[in-house]
Amino acid sequence: MTVYYNISAPAKLNLNLFVKHKSADGLHFLESDICFLELIDKIYLKFSQEDTFHQNKENSFFIDPKKNLIWQAINKFRFHTNWDKKFEIYLDKNIPIGSGLGGGSADAAATLVLLRTLFNKDNNHNKIPISKILQIGGELGSDIPSCIISKDLRLSGYGKEIKRKKFPSNYYFLIIYPNIELLTKSVFQHYSDIKNYDRKSKEILFENIIIHNSLLLSAISLAPKIKDILNNLRKIPNLVAYGMTGSGSTCFGIVKNLKDIPNPNKYFNNKYFIWFGQKANFNLNRVGFSKVLENKF
C-alpha cells in the first residue's frame, strides 16, 4: 500500500436557479442558492516521475479523457505557478456525470485546493492565497469558484458573485438521477423566457427559501422523465420541498427525518441513480492522507 494525499469533492445542489436576463455577449445573469452534499468524489494524489490517472474500477461513471477537468486544473495551476511537479492520481467517482450536480467542477475545484496546499507547503516564501485559486478556477468554469468554497452560498451575476449564506441544517436530501445526461448549453438554447414560467403553480418553500428553477420547462422538453420524477416526489408523505437542480436532469426531494425517506423502488425506476443524505459545509483545509489499495483501481 502507498500513502496518498486525498481530498473530498462534494456534489453541488441548486436549491433554486433564477435566470434573470441575457447579456450582449450571450451570458445569462443568474441568481441561485446552492449547498453541497455528503455525496462526494474522492481524489487521491502523490508526487510521481510522470503524470498518470486511474479511476476506481467499481464506479460506473467514467470520465472522458478529453473532458478530464482534473488535468485541466493541474495544467492551469502549472501555467500560473510554473510548478513543474508530476502526479499520480486516483479518482473514486461517485457523482454522476452530466447530472447537474457539478461533479466535474467539484473535481477540478478540489484539485486546485489540494495543489494550493501542497504548493504552499513546498514554497514557504511564495504562498498562494485563496484569491489566486478562485481566479484560476474562474478561468476553467463559472461553477468552479463556488465549488472551491463548498459551503452554503448565494450566487449572482454570471456565477462569479459569491456570498456566504446559511441554510437550514438537519434535513435529508433524496437525489434522483434518471441517467439522462443533459448538456447545459442545450438546456439554455431551449430556454425561452422566464416570463413563460407558470406563476399559477403553487410556490414551493424550503423554510424561507423559494425552490424554483427557470430552466425546468426547457429541461423537461429535452427529458420528459424529469416531469414524472417530480410528480412521484410530490407523492412522498411528509415531503418538505422538491425540485430540479442546475440544468438537470437530477431532481431532489427534502425531508425532515430520515424515516421519511421511503423505499425508492416504490416511486422510481430501480435503474435510476438514487442517493440520500445530508448537506455539509466543507473546509479549505480538508486535505488528508490515505493508504490506497491498488486493486481497487
Q: Which key terms come to mind for this protein?
A:
7 helices, alpha+beta, Alpha-Beta Plaits, globular, 297 residues, 14 strands, 31% strand, 25% helix, single chain, Ribosomal Protein S5, domain 2
Summarize the structure.
By secondary structure, the protein is of the alpha+beta class. The chain contains seven helices and 14 strands. Strands 1, 2, 3, 4, 5, 6, 7 and 14 form an eight-stranded mixed sheet that branches. A four-stranded antiparallel sheet has the order 11-12-8-13, covered by helices on one side. A two-stranded antiparallel sheet has the order 9-10.
Characterization of this structure:
This protein is of the alpha+beta class and 297 residues long. The chain folds into 2 domains: 2-164 and 281-296, Ribosomal Protein S5, domain 2 (2-Layer Sandwich), CATH 3.30.230; 172-277, Alpha-Beta Plaits, CATH 3.30.70.890. 25% of the residues lie in helices and 31% in strands. It has 7 helices and 14 strands. The strands form 3 sheets. Strands 1, 2, 3, 4, 5, 6, 7 and 14 form an 8-stranded mixed β-sheet that branches. Strands 11-12-8-13 form a 4-stranded antiparallel β-sheet, with helices on one face. A hairpin with a 2-residue loop joins strand 9 and strand 10 (209-211). The protein is globular.
- The residue ranges in which pLDDT falls below 50 over 5 or more consecutive positions are none
As for the CATH topology of the largest domain, it is Ribosomal Protein S5, domain 2
Domains counted in the coordinates: how many?
2
Which descriptor suits the 3D outline? Answer: globular
Report the mean per-residue pLDDT as an integer: 89
Assembly state: single chain
Helical coverage, percent range: 10-25%
CATH top level of the largest domain?
Alpha Beta
**Coarse structural class:** alpha+beta
Secondary-structure element string = EEEEHEHHHEEEHEEHHEEEE
Indicate the CATH architecture of the largest domain.
Answer: 2-Layer Sandwich
